[in-house]
Sequence to fold (433 residues):
Amino acid sequence: MKKVDFLIYYEHINREIENICLLSAELKRRGYSTIIRKYGSWTPVKPKVVLTPFLYSTDDIYPIVYGCYGRVEKIINLQWEQVRTPELENNRSLYPDGWAIYAQHLAWGTKTWDKLREIGVSKKNIAVTGNIALDLNFKYFDKLFLSREEISNIYSLDNKKKWHLFISSFAYSNLDKSQINGLKSKLYNLNYLIEIHKSSQIELISWFDSYLKTHMDIIIYRPHPAECLSEKVLELDKKYTNFKIIKDYSIRQWIRICDTVSNWISTSIADTYVLGKSCSILRPITIPQNLDMALLDRPNTYLKSYKQFVEFLDGKYSIQFPCSDETMLYWYGENNGKNYMKVADFCIEVLNGNKYEFNYNSRMRYNIKKRTWLLRHQIYINVSKYINLQKFISKDHKTTAYSNFLEQRNINRLIEKYEDAFKVIIDESSDKE
Fold:
């Protein structure tokens, strides 16, 4: 049985791959072993510490406990989603509960620390580290990203034209029945959220359509990791050669090389902030304050009309950044490009500290229904590495099945590529200090 110091799980590959590979490379540089796998898969190793992308409840521990060999006694919640709307901040189901509160939880800044303490998580179970993702926006990571010319060649984008990036967050605009049923218990106003997503997306597509009729510039539509593309978005893609839907690479890659950046309600506003680029918030339809992203504290900067949108893309409309320095500091803490080192320090502290042990296995009640579901899910993920299961999956999930097949088939090569790149960057950075 293979033993490993750290088993690192991810949920959304494009959102997390750079972050976890940077952390993995730093831990390996210090002499520790790591392995990266998709959350919910089966990994035949015995880990000393498990890092998970989220941890809301005891149910979320189940795939961890039954996803590897041996007893799981140390769990670190990387908690990739920490910025929410005011309403979701008060939704108890989106914060650790049950046995999950005994894991170690990373907080980016004071805001998450305060919230975790408020719901009863002990001080000894929280570490304020900053967000690894923001490290990647600092200059010494520049060589990790492709140049505009390289991206131009890959996607046949005319480099002489302006590239306008739109960061979509329309995760609720095209949900299937099973997704809606799964979310109803967590979001009491789900129907209202779906309506806001749908109506806002329809209006923005209308803006894009009107703009593309009279401009040869390129609009790059970057879907949310959990977004299932609507027919209207796909129709726009067929209608215009200068409208591109691109899911590949991290959002930071695109923010760096595009001429303008537009956002609806995405937390990637933080990446735009650290990179020092201007960003518009597009609001054709007003979102109630309790449902707006708490990070955005300058609503007077929002673009609410098509005229303002066109002027912004054409460089004729100058706007203040949508969130203040004070708000960024409160949510994300101090950022100097070394958050990955703070997280690595804490991981090693947990690895070597007996006080962080909590025997989850002995406290988890065996549930045949959950165990059966998990086993099927594990087979689905693990087999996807070798076989395209698309033809065996129901119509609603065929696209997801194919995406998972491509992801699992290429994941090891992708991890190796990023870890090798980070090793060089980290070594060069260390030499200069």
About this structure: Residues 130 and 297 are 20 Å apart (CA to CA). The mean pLDDT is 90. The chain has two domains: 2-135+336-432, 143-325.
